[in-house]
Amino acid sequence: MKINIALVISIIIAVGLVAFGFTAFQISSEREQLNSELQVKTIRVAEEFYKNNLAHLATDDSTQIQITDSAIGRYNFLGMAAYYHADSIITINKETATYLPHSTDYIARALSADSSLSNKINVNGKKVYQYIRLVKRQNLPAMAIVFYTDAEYIENIINSIWLRNFLRWFLQALVISVVTLLIVRWGILNPLNKVIEWVKAARTGNIEQWKTKPRNTFLAPLYREISGIAQAMQEAKAIAQEEARLRTSAESIWTPERLNEEMKQVLQNKKLIVVSNREPYMHIRAGKEIQCIRPASGMVTALEPILKACGGLWIASGSGDADRDTVDENDKVLVPPSEGKYTLRRVWLTKEEENHFYYGFSNEGLWPLCHIAHTRPTFRIEDWEYYKKVNAIYAEAVVKEIKDEEEPFILVQDYHFALLPFLIKQQRPDAKVALFWHIPWPNPESFGICPWQKELLNGMLGADLIGFHTQYHCNNFLETVNDSLESRVLWENFSVKIGNHFTLVKPFPISIAFTFKDYDSNGEIRPSPQELLKQHGINAEYMAVGVERIDYTKGLIEKCLSVERFLDKNPEYLGKFTLVQIGAVSRALLKTYSDTVSAVEAEINRINWKFKAKNWQPILFLKKHHSHEEITPFYRSANLCMVTSLHDGMNLVAKEFIAARDHNDGVLVLSRFAGASQELHGALIVNPYDIEQTADAIKTALEMPIEQQTQKMKRLRRMIMNHNVYSWAADILRAMASIQN
Ligand code: F6P
């Protein structure tokens, strides 16, 4: 409203000033013209009058003038006077007497100038024009005849010009104001108000209104600019809100310290024992030195931070060639080596035991049985016997460790120890025993081919709690139990009852040690893919990374084929893209594994040979055990990570890649057959058997706009932070604590 009034006033003043200027100029020239016309006309008529009626004055000395009112009226004079000298003035009519006092000075000036003069005088507010005609007489002083004519009409004309121009100014100002107001209202204020409403919607987070963008071509550039600013504001606001939310909820995010506190409450001074086949630290000989390494194992990656945070005892097979040299008389060693946070108790297996238990039944029987990766399981009776034997050895070791402990918490890991829960509970019913199965559980028909499925299931159901990564695996397990054992499967709470013993079967998706401080860490400088590849003699712009134990379940051949297909389909990436495949040799004594290594190498060689160019190859195979510190630079710098498992319980490589992306960029290409695909929304999910699809996913990942990458990566990182391995441990230990024996 204020702007309207100001606008109208401005228009009125502006138009008024222009109109006034023009009118003043017009009037001044009009007045000049009228005055000069009046002068010319008055002099002409007066001269004529003089010639007709007064010419005799120049020659005689008479002071008698015979002129009547009507005579001067005919000549349109108002009056007339004959001026001989100040005391002798003859006036013709009454008006002349009123005008004369205003003329005397001027008459005197004309006489002394000896010249006729004319000008305008003001007589009682009336404009009168006077012409003083000098009459030169012979032998007599000059005299003056004064003619008066009406000059008032000039003022009337001037006034009417003023009036006309005022009216014109008023109308112009009115019309211009109305038109301007309409233009301002409909053409500017309305669209502007819409933009204001729209910006307000952006500010207040009214997404619906924000989405309906105002249409206006005139304000389009402004809209575009504001749109950009508002977008940036929205994003900044969302980030700030999210960060504020994260900061306030940071305390609710699980950390080692929080888990430690929680464990004090949950365990109530009870002992925590982890049992696994694979040990978290292996001591190996390197020349004369003894090195301590962490084996390539998702299970170790997950469990190690928990033991580091809470302390406890970890019982595992000693498999390093210097392991015996580093333990005490009780076969124990404090680990991690320089920190000594918890105790590792090593169990020694003979070559035969390791051969039949680990390589045989566990990895030629159960591993392919549970992974649907089209490698046939092999069941041998000797392997089974050794499997039972080693489980018994471990049971003895555990029972020995808990002999003075009341209600200890025993966390058994993986398919190597299916019988262990029952064996422990048999001797120590008070112990709270959980079994976490790190690999998938197949459908009942698939599992049913195992000749000792009942014994395995009974052994497992000795546990109070059985955990899998996904509900799908829990359901498969419960169906297997339902189909093959005399038991009651209680689907309403996902538990199994055998006799008086209940076993709860629950999903606990395992994770990694990733907390708020890791999430919040600002991206430190990292090498570009190009720089990193150069260290390996490769010149390429883009890099994918894969990190796996060399295992037929990991889909390594499929991954290589999809890289080949990607390059076939997108030759513009030839010489520009390289997959760095880090592969730790695993279970190498088994033919299926050594065959896998050979097959992967042969495939990589074939593909590299097919495309190879100077200083470039499509796949760089780094076949050796890499420490976490060695892998991290590849995780951090790669454009994408490829996890193409044909079947996988969870797959922590996917989560480790995400954790390493402190720049919030990069893309994860993830197999739909890995348990992680259930959680990691934001990854590009592929069927690794579908080479075409995976090849296209590589392209999509490489060409994904950075904003999209960031949006997805932030979401993935938040997800992992909220569901880290500390929350996993808290969940599983709380569930154990809640079980009444
Ligand atoms: O996936 C099952 C699992 O036990 C993992 O926990 C681990 O990553 C892997 O197998 C290691 O196998 P191994 O102990 O035979 O090297």
Q: Count of helical segments?
A: 24
Low-confidence stretches are: none
Across the major sheet, the strand order is: 10-11-9-6-12-13-14-17-16-15
* pLDDT averaged over residues: 91
For the record, give the distance between the C-alpha atoms at the N and C termini, rounded to a whole number. 79 Å
Largest sheet: 10 strands, mixed
Bound molecules: 6-O-phosphono-beta-D-fructofuranose
- Structure classification: alpha/beta
The outline comes out as rod-shaped
What radius of gyration results from the CA coordinates?
54 Å
Number of E strands:
23
* Strand percentage: 15-25%
Helix content: 40-55%
Kindly describe this structure.
The protein is an alpha/beta fold and 741 residues long. It is built from 24 helices and 23 strands. The strands form 4 sheets. It has a 10-stranded mixed sheet, with helices on both faces. Helix 8 (256-267) packs parallel to helix 24 and helix 18 (556-569) packs across helix 22 (691-703). The longest helix has 53 residues, at 2-54. It is rod-shaped. The structure holds 6-O-phosphono-beta-D-fructofuranose. 6-O-phosphono-beta-D-fructofuranose binds at residues 278, 297-299, 414, 438-439, 586-587, 649. Residues 278, 297-299, 414, 438-439, 586-587, 649 line the site of 6-O-phosphono-beta-D-fructofuranose.
Topology (elements, then pairings):
Layout: H1 2-54, H2 69-74, E1 77-85, E2 88-91, H3 94-99, H4 104-113, E3 117-123, E4 126-137, E5 140-150, H5 152-204, H6 207-211, H7 220-249, H8 256-267, E6 272-275, E7 282-286, E8 289-293, H9 298-310, E9 313-317, E10 332-335, E11 342-347, H10 351-370, H11 381-401, E12 409-413, H12 420-427, E13 432-436, H13 444-447, H14 453-460, E14 465-468, H15 471-484, E15 488-490, E16 495-498, E17 501-507, H16 516-520, H17 529-534, E18 542-549, H18 556-569, E19 577-584, H19 591-611, E20 619-623, H20 628-637, E21 640-643, H21 652-660, E22 667-671, E23 684-686, H22 691-703, H23 706-722, H24 725-737
Parallel strand pairs: 6-9, 6-12, 9-11, 12-13, 13-14, 14-17, 18-19, 18-21, 19-20, 21-22, 22-23
Antiparallel strand pairs: 1-2, 1-5, 3-4, 4-5, 7-8, 10-11, 15-16, 16-17
Helix pairs in contact: 1-5, 5-7, 8-9, 8-24, 10-11, 11-12, 18-19, 18-22, 20-21
The structure holds 6-O-phosphono-beta-D-fructofuranose (F6P).
